[in-house]
Amino acid sequence: MSGDNKPVLTDWLALMLLVMIWGSSFILIKKGLVSFNAMEVGALRITISFLVLVPFVVRRLGRVPRNKYPWFLLAGILGSGLPPFLFAKAQTVIDSYMAGVLNSLTPLFTLIAGLAFFGSKTRWQNVVGVVVGLAGAVGLLTAVNDPRLGNGILYGLYAVAGAVCYAFNMNTIKRYLSGFDALTITSVVFLFIGIPAAVYVFAGTDVLAKLTVDPASRVSLGYIAILAVVGTALSLVVHNWLIRRTSALFASSVTYMMPIVSIGWGIADGEGFTAGYLLWIVLILIGVYLANRPARRAVPPSPVP
User: How far apart are CA 104 and CA 166, in angstroms?
Assistant: First the structure.
């Protein structure tokens, strides 16, 4: 099954699995940053994911026409190449749960990207949702700004940029790669971005030296490995499968349920959560809900033979 199909129970279960996995990603990034800088965390995440997926890409690359390579490269850069660095950079200043909340803007940007570049159609309430959600994001970025830590607005924008990348990636996959199965998309994507990341890790960083002399760095690497294997490689297969079965907008809706998980992890880890943030978070989620809300049907659609 492929195309913009109505989600069934299997799709909702896959969505809930992604909520739990990706909602936990931000606390794992935080733990990785204990011993490694943002560039190292991002590159390690990509490299480990690539190594996990190598056995699968060997048999699948030959099935991909060469004229599709540019779209796989673009999907790799947008979906798995830039965001690991952007979110790690954001979390050098803002709390992990805050990055998770800002990531929930992805469905808004998915809608905007679809309208502007992919020929999607929308309704007035979806546009209202975009306005409301972006207003909540502006309010949250303003509220989180803390001169003692640095420019919180700037570092929050790194997370926003990551959400924009995810949005364009989902539209790209839906428009240009929907004919490929999820494992092919994920493994080939990481072939394009994994090799440069691995070269950077081994030739452009002192990761190996840190692992040799600092026991704490091995713990951080363990968190990054969990993030890479479960939160990137495995979950992207599920996510790309979900995009093909349903729609880019439905698949992106995982992000407006993720804050529940990321906020829970943040509070458990002692991060400060104030009531003042709650208003803006609720506003973002209301906006995302409106932007993601499908049109009501007076009559159920007829099954397509």
Answer: 11
Q: Is the Cβ–Cβ distance between 29 and 98 less than 8 Å?
A: no
Per-position b or e across 45-75, b if 16+ CB within 10 A of its CB: bbbbbbebbeebbeebeeebeeeeeebbbbb
- pTM score, whole prediction: 0.82
How far apart are the C-alpha atoms of 5 and 228, rounded to whole Å? 30
Do the beta carbons of residue 163 and residue 109 sit within 8 Å? yes
> Could you state, in order of their start, the residue ranges of all structural domains in the chain?
9-104+154-267
Nearest to 112 by CA among 55, 189, 166: 166
Distance (Å, rounded) from C-alpha 115 to C-alpha 98? 27
The SS3 assignment for 146 reads strand
- Whose tokens are 């033979």? That residue is 305
Tokens of 41: 């965390």
Q: Are 46 and 80 in contact (CB under 8 A)?
A: yes
Per-residue pLDDT 10s for the chain (305 aa) are 445 567 788 888 888 888 899 889 999 999 999 999 999 999 999 999 999 999 989 888 988 999 999 999 999 999 999 999 999 999 998 888 888 888 878 877 887 887 777 666 777 777 788 788 788 877 877 776 555 545 667 888 899 999 999 888 888 888 888 888 888 988 999 999 999 999 999 999 999 999 999 999 999 999 999 999 998 788 878 887 887 777 766 776 676 678 888 888 988 998 877 777 888 888 888 887 777 666 544 333 323 33
Residue 86: CB partners within 8 Å, gap ≥ 6?
Answer: 158, 159, 161, 162, 165
Residue whose tokens read 């190598």: 54
